[in-house]
Amino acid sequence: MANAHEYAKANGSQFEKQLDDLLRIKSISTLPECKPDVQQAAEWVAADMKRIGLTTVEILPTGGHPVVYGEWLGAGSSAPTVLVYGHYDVQPAVKSDGWDNEPFDPVIHDGRIWARGSSDDKGQMLAQLKAAESLLANGSKPTVNMKFLIEGEEEIGSTNLGKFVAENKAKLKADVCVISDSGMKTIDQPVIDYSTRGLMYLDFEVFGPKQDLHSGGYGGVVHNPAQAMAEIIAQLHNADGSVNVPGFYDDVLKMSDEERAELRNHAATEADWKAATGVPQLWGEAGYEPHERIGGRPTLEINGFVSGFYGAGSKTVLPAKALAKISCRLVPNQDPNKVYELVKAQLLALTPPTVRSEVRLQASAYPAVMDIHSSAMTAALNAFEKGWGKRPIFERGGGTLPIIADFQRQLDNLPVILMGLGLSGDGAHGPNESFTLEMFHKGIDTAIYFYEELGK
Amino acid sequence: MANAHEYAKANGSQFEKQLDDLLRIKSISTLPECKPDVQQAAEWVAADMKRIGLTTVEILPTGGHPVVYGEWLGAGSSAPTVLVYGHYDVQPAVKSDGWDNEPFDPVIHDGRIWARGSSDDKGQMLAQLKAAESLLANGSKPTVNMKFLIEGEEEIGSTNLGKFVAENKAKLKADVCVISDSGMKTIDQPVIDYSTRGLMYLDFEVFGPKQDLHSGGYGGVVHNPAQAMAEIIAQLHNADGSVNVPGFYDDVLKMSDEERAELRNHAATEADWKAATGVPQLWGEAGYEPHERIGGRPTLEINGFVSGFYGAGSKTVLPAKALAKISCRLVPNQDPNKVYELVKAQLLALTPPTVRSEVRLQASAYPAVMDIHSSAMTAALNAFEKGWGKRPIFERGGGTLPIIADFQRQLDNLPVILMGLGLSGDGAHGPNESFTLEMFHKGIDTAIYFYEELGK
User: What is the value of ipTM here, to two decimals?
Assistant: First the structure.
């Protein structure tokens, strides 16, 4: 009987084929018209769970998109239990955003599979499922119990998952949670993120005249809402790059000098950041290095805006309104609901009496920080060392995994391990998202080692 | 034989039916896909000119959309010749902009005909043509020669008309030009605009990272282009509402104290402006009253902008670029090309080194001012007094009629009379554009009086 690592190696191309299948499902959670696709992705995941031998597989409804749950508890009640979290939903994508291929028609070249969700998170989530498959294959008996919680609303702030976790504490009880939904800079140096940022996302709308006006007949007499919005947005950052929202930094847990020194050891250089993004010069909060601004500091971002006429040619309209999508990434101990109230108050305070504005909360998630000294973390370090041949370094992550804070708060401070398998250049959330096949296979191997380490 | 005024009255409903026909043609000059519709509108106008008895009717090609020309020179070489200018093209419009009806499916209610172009300029232009029809009807012989120049590119800055006029000086030779393409505040008080503003329209694009990025992975390290654009736009006006472009006001011809006092006599109140626009408070350049800011001062307007994600829900993208459409209304003696260079230089100067930007000229037109003491102007005043029962007041117009400066410069300083038949509330360039049928019929009657006055 082949061991789990040999099974994974022998079935590598089959695993890639399965990833290709899943990537073809347009499971964009934020678009109402994709609801059937999201459901289809849930069913695909459930079917795969059943096929690989999980003993209880359910598609569980929530207030939004369903959760897929599967478990294998054959290691017995004295063995440790690992809870695997991942998500099958993806960000929006259309080819015209700048993709070289159709985002839901995956192609493989340059050692990568190119499709929306390949890295975030279908590829990474599937690596965990394929590790479980390898452990369960050939009738072998893993030494760890496994529970899989794969949700469909991560990209829209996991709106309904907190409630689901609170209502299913017994079902989700575990000794450690592992999540593959983050990344490292290069394939040579594995990384474990030990913090994630929270999120607060809002719509900000400015209203001027009751309808679009002729710019010649009214320009100079009414305050143009696009101009007013620009004037408000321009005041949301100070000249030093800090966020100009009273109280915004009040609850920020400062990084210690030791932590900053440790993080600096492995930090990307300014040249690395410029090469990765193509910008002529970096930007950000003064007093913090780029990796600190991503991992340890909160930010405020304009995710998009629209007003008036923006087509080809010239339309001399004075628009009636302008809309901006604004979000903040938060760090411990910021509370997204409190930050929403602060940003909302500032947006309304910055709105001049010449226009009217509205603020509407769209999504929110708590930040989280994880214990790097837990026994589960030691198991993860050992697993990476075996899977990669190199001990991982610790970093602070810039992204948001709403579920971590929920797990910590609802499930007795459950230790969470971020086994990120993405790479910085994967293009998550942007066009031409891709996932390195070598990371996929190394990730499966490392996850197997992790389960083995936990069950020792 | 009925006189021209009786003919116009008897044929009023027929004239409305013809206007309805013309409004159904989607002659949006800025949209390439509407080119056949623009051509169709030109053919409609030419056919009507032939039907009413103009003796030379031509659809003349330009570098863009064609010019429709028609003339009747039966009054003889000793009689004065009037050149009528108008345009058959319209601004873009789709119902989703906020229209209550399909913008190219006219409806009549509340004494108005509702459709794109009803006021600007198909309705006003047709009033002139129907005046000519009335004068020529029943075999009567007008005492004035008439030339009609109806173009198809007014809404895109009359790009090719200047060249057309320069190349057709003899054909267009006239003693006075009349244009119905402006308006008055109320139907009770006729107005003659004696100045129009020029226009400079540009695209401004800001480029940041080479592609859209994950806001969690890069927010706080690169300068968000939407934010950078907002920060640049916010600097284009000073706190006092003046335009912050070095040199912008250098060539502005100041209004005299006498002129300002005269204009103040009939000026709309702040309450009028607020009622017309629905804004909570007016805005604009300090030191000038609202009507002065519209008629006598240059402005800079954001006609629209777009960046990143602006749909429903939340997409945590850091956009790669942002686009704004920016235009200036200009007054004598500003030169649109010089102003373009000034604004471009300021936009580039305000672009921080963290992003890259591009500026592209889209359209330009010269401002114009007209002699209020010419004999043609006296004829216009008399005509309005007969048609309206009230002497017109003089105002400065805020809109742009690129052709006026071209006529003045190419055709021996040809006197131009603006016989505006629109009303401020017509909604030109915005949704629910409409044209008052009473203005249509009064306009036809007044235009007949004008031709009669000129031919005395």
Answer: 0.85
Quote the radius of gyration of chain B (alpha carbons, Å). Answer: 23
Give Cβ neighbours of residue B168 (< 8 Å, ≥ 6 apart): none
Distance CA A7, CA B413 (A): 90
Residue that the structure tokens 């959670």 belong to: A29
Q: Which chain A residue is nearest to residue B290, measuring alpha carbons?
A: A221
Percent of chain A clearing pLDDT 70 (strictly above): 100
The pLDDT tens digits for B403-453 are: 898 899 899 989 999 999 999 889 888 899 999 999 999 999 999 999 999
* Annotated domain spans of chain A: 4-196+367-454, 198-259+294-365
Phi first, then psi: what are they for A289, rounded to 5°? -80, 160
- How close, in Å, is residue B416 to chain A by CA atoms? 19
With an 8 Å Cβ cutoff, is A171 touching chain B? no
Q: pLDDT for A321-367, tens place per residue?
A: 999 999 999 999 999 999 999 999 999 999 999 999 999 999 999 99
CB contact under 8 A, A308 and B307: no
A residues 408-427 closer than 8 Å to B (CB): 424, 427
- CA distance linking residue A279 with residue B229, whole number of Å: 15
Domain A4-196+367-454 has CATH 3.40.50.970: no
A1: exposed, middle or buried (C-beta count within 10 Å: 0-12, 13-18, 19+)? exposed
CATH topology of domain A198-259+294-365: Alpha-Beta Plaits (3.30.70)
Q: In this structure, what token pair is assigned to residue A19? A: 């990833």
Judged by CB atoms closer than 8 Å, whether chains meet at B279 and A209 is answered as: yes
CATH topology of domain B198-235+302-363: Alpha-Beta Plaits (3.30.70)
Minimal CA–CA distance to B396: which of B183, B86, B157? B183
For residue B211, name the pLDDT band (cuts at 50, 70, 90): very high
Q: Which residues between 303 and 362 in chain A have a beta carbon less than 8 angstroms from any beta carbon of chain B?
A: 303-320, 322-325, 327, 329, 352-356, 362
CB contact under 8 A, A294 and B217: yes
Q: Which helix or strand (DSSP H or E) is residue A19 part of?
A: helix A12-23
| Dihedral, B259, B260, B261, B264 alpha carbons, nearest 10 | 120
| Residues in CB range of A286: below 8 A, 6 or more apart | A240, A241, A242
What is this structure's pTM? Answer: 0.85
CB A366 within 8 A of CB A198: yes
Q: How far apart are CA A231 and CA B223, in angstroms?
A: 17
pLDDT, tens digit (0-9, with 9 covering 90-100), for B322-359:
999 999 999 999 999 999 999 999 999 999 999 999 99
Listed in sequence order, the DSSP H helices in A137-269 are 161-167, 169-172, 215-218, 225-233, 257-265
